Description:
By secondary structure, the chain is mainly alpha-helical. Helix content is 64%, strand content 4%. The protein has a two-stranded antiparallel ribbon with strand order 1-6.
Amino acid sequence: MKYDDVLQEIGFGKYQIRVAILLVLSCVPNGWYAMISVFILDIPEHLCHVGIHDTNKTASPNLTNATFNNCIPWEENDAGETIPSKCKRYTSNETEDGQNRTIIDCDHGWNYLTEFNETTAVMEWNLVCGKSWIKPVIISGYMIGSLIGGTIGGTLSDRYGRKVTFLVGLALQSLFIAVLGFSDNFIMMTILYSLAGFGSTLNYFGAFIISAEIVDRSKRALIGNLAIGAYAVGYMMLPIFAWFIADWRWLCYVVGGLGILFVPYYWFIPESPRWLIVNGKPEANSLILKIAQINGKQINELDLTKINVSANDDEATNETFKPTLLDLVRHRSIRTRTFALSFIWLTVALTYYCISLGTSNLGGNKFINCFVAAGIEIPSYVLIYFSMEKFGRRSTLAFYLVLTGISCITASLLLKVDEILMTVCAMFGKLCISGVFSVVYIYAAELYPTQMRNMGMGICFTFGRIGTISAPYMVFAGESARRDIPFIIMGCFTVLASVISLVLPETNNVKLPENMDDVIKQDRYKIKMCR
Length: 531
């Protein structure tokens, strides 16, 4: 008997719905924690502290042209506007001919021109000008932690159980975000944020695996999309928290402390039946009977030793073949898919996080920008879903990558024309790239043969994380050099990725490849159709 047959017998009913809802809800905090840096590491407008002319740590923008006029030199920004220097001041406070005064770096700290009286770690530790490189280091720490969690998360869940891995990840991310508020310096913050990133991936993967192994294959894609949607909901909630909690430390305390709401999950979330069967746990039978009973199904005790528990039943087709990483590049067909998907995943992750992390740099209200950037993800997933069903995976991927590229390049051109139009273009690019994220997950899983699907997805995930680690530095380039640099690079990368995606075969309504022969047949069919 196959494990999917067991799932068919116990049915899909109240038990799975309840567990699936709880697991999807557990993905909401991931949106808080991944994007909290947008607010706790925000860089407000700032000017040199010039002694007798300003006695407060913060100042209102109307002081810019009056009090500081004789103390701060003026310079032109990348939009062609003349603004007070953020990192330089005059050595003298007296009114003199500006050409004869000596300009030096800020040596007495900074005045931060906050609009909402908020505080950030950047303001507290003066992570601006010569220290502005520290911000992307902190953010990339979270991404590196997430990469490590994703790399070993599967192994941990296989060895110690899905439930344990899920709960540990849930606890770690909440705990270390709360403790983040106690950070005394950027090194401590980087370490704590990395540990939170490690926990976030364990939590997300654990939730997805448990839900995928407790329902039949027809419901797995739905659960996956709901989990992504939950992330977007959490992302939307974050600017609301930040609006009411102006102090960055208290924002960490509150958002991290909300993790206590998930303590009852220890009793409400079951272990994966599949994992229990694989490891010969006696409670597997009682759990299956319990699920069937709650769902209103009558089944007898099963002989668990006779159940094929492969994650994908097709894996039994060739158990003697043990693929290695070299197999991903040995044959031309697989090599093409691996190289193409790796670049596409890197590009999608880089673009998504670059736009998301840079919402406070788009101009206008940073809270509204963040809320809109999160909110447009939900209709994006719906739009992409119907596009994939109607036009296929490859066409949808290529089309929305091109739209993202056009939006980013247009945003860079509008920087000196109209900031509102630039923001609109950036948000449209965010809508397109958010949906592409869901395409690449499905498409990659359908392109690799069963024998090396997990390994291929692992490589794609790794390159995706390289993109997320690079994103904070891209944002930094926009903050410290030219604001249009990130948009130009993202535009070029996404257009190139769109062209590269055309070398891949279409997989919509096509049987999943089980081995290399099926992959070769797919490629031959693609060539024949092109002719």
